[in-house]
Amino acid sequence: MRRRLASVRARATLAATLVVAIALVAAGTAVLLALRTNLIDQADAQAENEARKVAVDLAFGVPHRELDLPDAEDNPVQVLDPRGHVVAADEDVESMSPVAAAGAGRAEGTPATADGDDDADAGDGHGDADQDEGTPAAGEISEEARIIPGTATVDGHTGDYRFAEVEVTTSQKVTLTVYAGASLSAEKGAVGTAQTTMLIGLPLLLVTVGGATYVVTRRALRPVEGIRAEMAAITASEDLSRRVPEPDTHDEIARLASTTNETLAALETSVERQRRFVADASHELRSPIASLRTQLEVGAAHPELLDVEGAVEDTVRLQRLAADLLLLARLDAGERPQDARFDLAKLVREEAGGRDRVHLDGVDAVEVTGSRSQLARVLGNLLDNARRHAHDRVDVTLRTDGAWAVLQVADDGSGVPPEERERIFERFVRLDESRSRDDGGAGLGLAIARDIAVRHGGTLGVGEAPGGGALFGLRVPRAAPLEGARGTARQATTDPQ
Known about the structure:
Layout: H1 2-59, E1 77-80, E2 86-89, E3 93-96, H2 98-104, E4 140-141, E5 146-154, E6 157-169, E7 175-183, H3 185-237, H4 252-301, H5 308-332, E8 340-343, H6 344-353, E9 358-362, E10 367-370, H7 372-389, E11 394-401, E12 404-411, H8 437-440, H9 445-455, E13 459-464, E14 470-477, H10 486-494
Parallel strand pairs: 9-11
Antiparallel strand pairs: 1-2, 1-7, 3-5, 4-6, 5-6, 6-7, 8-10, 11-12, 12-14, 13-14
Helix pairs in contact: 1-3, 4-5, 5-9, 6-7, 7-9
């Protein structure tokens, strides 16, 4: 059991750690992607802003040499003519990767500024009609900027940049391309710092979560270990009066402990009942066996003194007692009654018709399902009990009550006190202990009758008869109507009682 509990703690800890690890990795990845995207978007905006500043100056006729270029390390800028020649750039900018891509995209014969001149060649003979489609008009810049990732080498250091490409047409109708870059060093630094922090913090956090889960699970399962230990002690001592500890947490473990104690209480009651049953059975068997042995020993020594009738009576009593004990053993073992269909009214007439002082009244026919012999045993036990206590009369009534068949046996005897009406259904209980055992029986008849009634889905109780005696009422379910007789059965169910 301890290994199982340890395994539960280990599995819970491992599961919690894995769930937290997956959640943290997913969240960390999302954060890193969002951070990188945000920083790249900022770099793109910065590059486009710098490119448009230079393009605006060119559109207003600022000479190449007088352009106000930003810091080359953070924002390198190059201005290219239509032939792809660099006409303006910071002296620290050694190379920019978009230059080759942009130059490769140029068509042959595009006008360019003269090397070293501030003004464009005005005698190139190209007017507005000769400009490429989508090229800005004179004095204007392109509405959209093209973002290009790449690298640049500034003052001997090569790094990753985001470049914005903006086209501008000067007043001399010369189209220039401005490339402005924004360094990604800040993005790499921020993402790298975040990754390092996560790589260091994730294991520490997982260790903390795993340890906390293990401790919490151990504390939560501690009552289970107490229950297990107490159950082991109960098993070793066979003392069913002991109970497992119930925690005050009002959770599933507390309910488990409560249910375990209820099971132990039911088991203790069952075992105690079985012990009393064995003791009472032994006591009841001892009397007829001892009497029969005495009679046989006397008869063996003095044949003329042998009481044959007494021996036969003791033998019959012993046989009946053995049959009752066997029936109770089968009922306790859970024997299910046979699913036979028969007429309970006919059975009542057969059992009560030949008995003196018994008056029968009730319906002509009512079908039930179950064991005919067992229900006959119930009726016989009730009639025998009523005849033993009745002064002059026993009334048997059979009627229907909806889906139930109700059998009542009433006598005009002294009745059963209210405080004893449940006790008389216990085994080996006789209220008239002073009465002869031969007259009173072993006290099993009513116990057997109630067990049979319960196993047939019914009830058996006792009350006060109109004449002051005892009134025993047996209720058992009526049989479901057959397909062909459904209308008749429905009519019988609705008849007034």
